[in-house]
Amino acid sequence: MIKGTLLFALLFTAAACTRKAEGEAKTKAATATASPTAAPPVEVSTATAITRAMARSVEVVGSLAADEEVVISAQVPGEVAQINIDFGSFVQAGQVIATLDQRDAKLRIEQAEASLKQTMARLGMTSDKFDPNQAADVKVARASLDWTKMDLERATKLVENGDVARSIYDNALTQNQLAQARHQAALDAVNQQLAVIEQQKSAINLAKKALGDTIVRSPITGAVKEKHTSRGAYLSQQSLRIATLVKINPLRLRADIPEFAAAAVRTGQQMLLEIDAFPGRKFTGRIARIGASLNEQTRALTVEATVANPGNLLRPGMFAKSSLITAPNAQATMIPSKAVVSIAGLTKVFVIENGKAVERIVKTGTKDGDLIEISEGVRTGENVALNNLDKLQTGTTVSNK
Q1: How many CB atoms lie within 10 A of CB 261?
Q2: What share of the chain is helix, strand, coil (3-state, %, to 5)?
Q3: How many helices (H) and strands (E) does the chain have?
């Protein structure tokens, strides 16, 4: 009896322990299901989007070109006696770049001057001012005319008084008429010689011009692009070229402005240039000429800018990246550049709203130091995350450092 009672007590105790263990297990499981462990918030630094006045610009590219390009040719054929330039030389406006043989031109001047002196000597001229009535032949003819005039006046009175025959008067009249003709002929001869003198003076001037034409000067300040002849070469009428010069200060920049910015283009606008050959340096240009219409294929407006080139550092043909300011005081929403992240072709930021991150796809614009313009996706006054961006997604709880 005692054995049976002890066995029953042991079985009852074991069953009770089993039920208690199963109850504790269920309680622990229920507690675990009802209270999961929450993820800790991500610590971020934030910045507020601000509005700032800034210059809006459009980026364009183009090539530098010479402001002028001139082919220098001699005015007259001849042998090149001297040439003072070479490829790449710099020249000043008015500088002598070549001289042709001057012997023929000087000889023609001497001949023309000698002919002039002979003609002037025949007329008795000693200066450019000359009265034709002072020529010797004219003086003789004038004296004869005066004499015959006096004879005619006496004969006229004698005939009127009946003192001489009519034939005496007729003879005096004939002599006077002949004297007038000789006087006029003498004046005409002198005037013809004076005309010859003017022709000879013109011949001298032409000869002097021909001498001047043997000296070839640069019409511009610039550089020698090509040298076409050398000392000792003969320049024929068919080929008088000496050199090709280019004016490189200022230079020209021709660029195409996209259609969306064409309406903002004005003459005098400043362009900032970057040249690959001078990294880190900025060069300045101003729009001088604007195309009359847009290109139908590219829908772009061609402009030409004048680019100052002090020191002649820049050269025609250099590639230039330029920035054209289209709105100098535009209002822009700006945030720190480090708030922007680009992944798989998408540019985004994380805006902090009510302690949580919200992903925004944005469009960026001009950079200004550490700030970048946001043209779409963020409004002024909103806060954006600056760090731990790789740990954020929409809905992530954040805390400010």
Answers
A1: 18
A2: 35, 40, 25
A3: 5, 21
Question: Residue 154: pLDDT above 90?
Answer: no
Tokens of 368: 């200004």
CA pair distance 208, 47, nearest whole angstrom: 81
Question: Dihedral angle at the C-alpha atoms of 341, 344, 347, 351, nearest 10 degrees?
Answer: -60
Indicate the length of the chain as a whole number: 401
How wide is the angle at C-alpha 172 spanned by C-alphas 168 and 173, nearest 5°? 115
Q: From the options 2.40.420.20, 1.10.3720.10, 3.30.420.40, 3.30.1300.10, give the CATH code of 46-53+331-400.
A: 2.40.420.20
Write the pLDDT tens digit of every residue in 372-400: 999 999 999 999 999 999 999 999 999 98
Q: Band of the pLDDT at 38, cuts 50, 70, 90?
A: low
Asked whether the beta carbons of 152 and 144 are under 8 A apart, the reply is no
- The whole-number average pLDDT for the span 135-143 is 85
pTM, whole model, 2 decimals? 0.61
Domain 59-67+248-330 superfamily per CATH: Efflux pump adaptor protein, beta barrel domain (2.40.30.170)
pLDDT of residue 160: 82
Distances (CA, A) of 206 to 100, 201, 210: 17, 9, 6
Q: What is the pLDDT of residues 116-127, one digit of tens each?
A: 999 888 888 877
Q: Is the predicted pLDDT of residue 242 greater than 50, yes or no? A: yes
